[in-house]
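Marked as duplicate of an earlier ticket. Keeping the data here for the record.
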Amino acid sequence: MERFELIAPCHFGLEAVMKREILDLGYEVSQVEDGRVTFIGDAEAVCRANIFLRTTERILLKVGSFKAETFEELFQGTRAIPWEQYIPRDGKFWVAKASSIKSRLFSPSDIQSIMKKAMVERMKGAYGITWFPEDGASYPLRVFLYKDVVTVAMDTSGDSLHKRGYRTLTSKAPITETLAAALLMLTPWKPDRILVDPFCGSGTFPIEAAMMAANMAPGMNREFLAEEWKNLIPKKCWYEAMDEANDLVKDDISVDIQGYDIDGEIVRAARANAAAAGVDHLIHFQQRPVSQLSHPKKYGFLITNPPYGERIEDKKNLPELYKTIGERFAALDSWSAYIITAYEDTERYFGRKADKNRKIYNGMMKTYFYQFMGPKPPSRNPGRQNG
């Protein structure tokens, strides 16, 4: 089967998590750059990566790269790509997105129209036709220019992969599913440990954790653009990847995952989202303010995205809020806390310095992932480590 170079974009600062996921799926990583990981795989890999990877935004199939400092070089470089090997004569094709960093060519709309013209030129010659109906499957392109090197790739996913298909109702500042999954993977949480999100909003952290615990592939309940690409990816590959995903689900696990929010409407929405994801039986949602946070057991995990005052009038409540979070955490016995927030004074009001802190870009916003580590639980049987 033909091998492709596949590109998996991810949040800046989380490339190592993405790389580990790809290696765990069994593919060879060829390059790690800021915000994306490139790996080698065949048609089956396109299907499996879309269905199984939790932390990428989409899977792109790389079709070429070349240097271009002028629009003429962009035109010629694009025309030199063997488009007829990728796009059938009735295919619908366009440059859906162009981004440019540290490059001479930077106008997205010009890049898009010049590349489209070059593709048409190439395919006219290859197919011996002058007009393209474009009424078949869609082949949208994504193009990155970095230091005058143009990377051209086709988007196999369609809707961004954070759209798992379960979140119909969202709270006002939701964290994306892909980011929530990546942050969970950065913690030593395992399904046999307690997990509580005291600001659960639409339920993303608890739902992603429950899906991991049940070994449910994040792409099980949605469709992908490349399912229509019968010229490149046999239908059989999609069926086999979906069968594999279904076979791996462990529905009978028992976990202690809880989500609280002060707003009853939001708690109801979170429950509905969990039901849509098929994990409502694994999560306990409750209307409860953070001031009432408590848990009798030891060695649990707090993972949360608390408010950080996007509006000026909310900012004045933050010291009190973060002080409360810190006090309730201090009252828990031997727990660990993981907090993602854009609030710069988190440690000051939380009442202790984080053991680790990493910068993560959530969209364009700089946020911090504060990690307050608790002690490890004693090993339950000799020779087995519980992180």
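See parent ticket for discussion. The CA atoms of residues 53 and 165 lie 15 Å apart.
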